[in-house]
Amino acid sequence: MNFSEKNILLVGASSGIGLATAQLLHTLEAKLFTISRHLSPELAELGTTHLEADATLPLAAELLAQLPETLHGVLYCPGSIKLRPFERIPLDDFRSDFELNVLGAVQVLQATMKKLKKAEGASVVLFSTVAATTGMSFHTSIATAKAAVEGLTRALAAEYAGSNIRVNAIAPSLTNTPLAAPLLNTPEKAEAGAKRHPLQRVGEPEDLAYMASFLLSDHSSFITGQVMPVDGGLGRLK
Q1: What's the CATH code of the domain at 41?
Q2: How far, in Å, CA of 185 to CA of 14, rounded?
């Protein structure tokens, strides 16, 4: 894969999966533009054009003006993990999960769609979760929000296929990121998490970065409207 002369916008690239994808795309010669609430030292090392913003808020005109006229790809990867029994989930948690995972993506894509259309062949990649299609206890809020992401993915793929804009999503399982640290921060938790997967390990950010880069690349030019599982077999195998 080569991204030379490709302008790629990554939202939520300061750590975890977003950072791993930015690092990979950097080695593949992409011209990177990143949006997050803060610029991490690891992301700063890549020399991206960084815009400091909260993805849940409308993007200011002065920020959008710093993006190029043409975008070849947008990756939206902010996420949340709030696992608790259904009866103990405040309604505000449902709202915040939906705002971050769904409405944040909507706002970014509405703001950048004209730039994607100018590419004459662009790609959008969103993030779902294995829990959106595989029922898991205590995942009610995030599963609800990510199921909406999957619906958004398919609807946008249908609407923009005629503009040669592909829209796909990735559905990971438990992945070794700062976001998931509370679920993996002891040897016992890490072992239990690994054993839930048929491949006997949890995901690494690089596992998701390779899939994201593939979907952003021209190698996936005949793929749209799909939700790609990167879950160690958890969603399909027993």
Answers
A1: 3.40.50.720
A2: 20
What is residue 58's predicted lDDT score, i.e. its pLDDT?
87
The answer to whether residue 74 is domain-embedded is yes
Sheet holding 122-127, edge to edge: 49-52, 31-36, 7-11, 73-76, 122-127, 165-172, 227-230
Q: How many domains does the chain have?
A: 1
Model-level pTM?
Answer: 0.95
d(CA 16, CA 154): 25
Q: Which tokens in the block code for residue 157?
A: 């793929």
- pLDDT reading at 3 higher than 90: yes
Task: Name the average pLDDT for the chain.
Answer: 95
CA distances from 64 to 10, 124, 174 (A): 13, 17, 33
Question: Helix 104-117 and helix 140-160: axis angle, to 10°?
Answer: 20
Report how far Cα 105 is from the mean position of its chain's Cα atoms.
Answer: 9
